[in-house]
Backbone:
């Protein structure tokens, strides 16, 4: 069904722009200093405090299981001088790690081939990549696809086709040994109508023009990946991966200087400073390869990483987006890539915000979450809800009690307002519990679904509840062809297109089947396109010690003949 026309919105005054200024590059340490800084060679880290939990988290900074993987990432074990890799093998491993600038330098000593073509394509130098690919038709097709995607042309079947068919992306690229990873990413990085500006509260991402609901804002492939979350307690895998990446890749080293990581206000940065588009002079490359110390690496991981599905992933450009408990943009993990779409109309000059965690919880719980992330949320929703009575700010109230509090004239809340929707969203758990205990085709259930639908825009829960509402309306008095059922069908279609982008008419049924399968899942009902969390990894401390020792031994082995 076609998307409904958007209403014209008045322009906002242009905020003052601040020209970016990069801090001076620090002096380059010697190679032994770099390897000593990142722990290669060295003793395995202490495993005190390693989690033995095997469940993943659904939020940005959750408590997923942690271990030192037997390979962690190419970035964690890459030391070409110590491993004796040939130039070709070195370049291929760096491509598989996603460190394309380092891969191109390594490929310079090797004959033109797949590694050089992949490195050039990763750096968005597509015409040069095609020349290097020569007669490799498969590589040429992949380069052409990435070039088209870099301009924002993402075909629905390319993005979601495998997942809709049950071949979920991310299972190989996220958790397999590096040799099994592809040379090229599944998707090209893309930056849409957004820019980084600095205002009174600091830097953030803003709309460069008016944006409509469902519009694609950004796509990014992770710069660094590691098993387990990047947290203040269990941070060794990400720390080691990031430090090695910074000692190898100019882009990673630049990100370590520009990303927020606690303490002083970070320097101004443009999105091109954090991507592959920026061209660095050859003289700057080696001087910029400085690895951050443990404290700085941990702070960057804690502040910027997305932690879910059993691993940590750093997306430097998306990390420019600030948090809000009433976000106007949504992130969707498709394999290793992160897609950011507007979940509502966004005005020109308006800040684009995402949620760093599940915001369908009461005010007090959200404040605890943001304090753990070392900031205080002052979004419109939090500013409103902090003034509410304690029964509405904390967990424990039933859906009926929440409705009674909203209807109380003393509350000053209009039951049809966005503030009422925020309060219901804060108690979504209570509403869902009541909905589960109600006959699904009753008017009471329809009322509960209607309240929930307004409170959870563009989340995966929104997709599931809208689908349930359509099923309920189909079984109502008017039947499948009744006005209520048709309206619910259109709304379900709209909700899915807002989250996944324009859906071809011949694929909407497949998409709804995946939503239905998630509702019927005995587990948490994960999203069809998300990467699967590892199920056969040993997360015990003993395994972590053995894996770390093996990685250290591999990186310090003498060159092979």
Residues:
């Amino acid at each position: 069904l076609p998307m409904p026309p958007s209403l014209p919105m008045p322009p906002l005054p242009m905020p003052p722009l601040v020209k970016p200024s990069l801090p001076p590059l620090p002096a380059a340490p010697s190679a032994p200093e770099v390897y000593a800084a990142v722990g290669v060679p060295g003793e395995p880290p202490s495993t005190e405090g390693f989690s033995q939990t095997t469940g993943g988290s659904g939020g940005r900074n959750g408590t997923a299981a942690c271990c030192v993987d037997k390979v962690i990432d190419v970035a964690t074990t890459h030391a070409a001088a110590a491993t004796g890799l040939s130039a070709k093998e070195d370049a291929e491993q760096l491509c598989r790690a996603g460190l394309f600038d380092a891969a191109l330098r390594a490929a310079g000593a090797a004959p033109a081939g797949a590694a050089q073509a992949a490195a050039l394509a990763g750096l968005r130098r597509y015409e040069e990549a095609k020349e290097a690919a020569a007669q490799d038709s498969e590589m040429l097709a992949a380069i052409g696809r990435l070039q088209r995607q870099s301009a924002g042309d993402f075909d629905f079947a390319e993005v979601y086709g495998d997942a809709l068919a049950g071949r979920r992306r991310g299972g190989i690229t996220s958790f397999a040994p590096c040799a099994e990873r592809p040379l090229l990413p599944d998707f090209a990085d893309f930056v849409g109508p957004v820019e980084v500006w600095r205002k009174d509260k600091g830097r953030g991402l803003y709309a460069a023009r008016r944006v409509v609901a469902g519009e694609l804002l950004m796509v990014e492939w992770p710069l660094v990946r590691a098993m387990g979350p990047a947290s203040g307690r269990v941070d060794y895998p990400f720390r080691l991966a990031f430090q090695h990446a910074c000692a190898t890749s100019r882009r990673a080293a630049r990100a370590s200087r520009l990303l927020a990581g606690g303490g002083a206000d970070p320097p101004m940065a443009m999105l091109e400073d954090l991507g592959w588009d920026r061209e660095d002079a050859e003289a700057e490359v080696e001087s910029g390869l400085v690895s951050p110390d443990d404290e700085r690496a941990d702070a960057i991981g804690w502040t910027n990483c997305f932690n879910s599905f059993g691993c940590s992933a750093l997306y430097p450009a998306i990390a420019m987006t600030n948090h809000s408990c009433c976000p106007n943009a949504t992130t969707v993990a498709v394999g290793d890539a992160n897609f950011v779409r507007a979940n509502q109309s966004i005005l020109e000059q308006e800040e684009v915000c995402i949620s760093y965690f599940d915001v369908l919880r009461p005010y007090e719980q959200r404040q605890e979450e943001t304090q753990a992330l070392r900031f205080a949320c002052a979004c419109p929703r939090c500013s409103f809800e902090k003034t509410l009575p304690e029964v509405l700010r904390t967990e424990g109230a039933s859906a009926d009690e929440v409705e009674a509090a909203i209807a109380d004239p003393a509350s000053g809340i209009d039951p049809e307002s966005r503030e009422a929707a925020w309060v219901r969203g804060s108690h979504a758990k209570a509403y869902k519990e009541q909905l589960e205990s109600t006959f699904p085709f009753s008017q009471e259930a329809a009322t509960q679904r209607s309240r929930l639908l307004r409170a959870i825009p563009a989340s995966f829960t929104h997709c599931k509840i809208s689908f349930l509402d359509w099923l309920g309306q189909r079984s109502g008095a008017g039947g499948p062809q009744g006005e209520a059922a048709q309206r619910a069908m259109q709304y379900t279609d709209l909700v899915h297109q807002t989250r996944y982008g324009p859906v071809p008419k011949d694929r909407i049924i497949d998409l709804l089947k995946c939503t239905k399968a998630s509702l019927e899942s005995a587990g948490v009902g994960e999203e069809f396109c998300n990467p699967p969390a590892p199920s056969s990894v040993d997360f015990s401390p003993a395994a972590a010690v053995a894996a770390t020792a093996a990685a250290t031994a591999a990186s310090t082995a003498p060159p092979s003949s």
Remarks:
- The first strand starts at residue 190 and ends at 191.
- Residues 3-84, 170-177, 535-545, 554-561 have pLDDT under 50 and may be disordered.
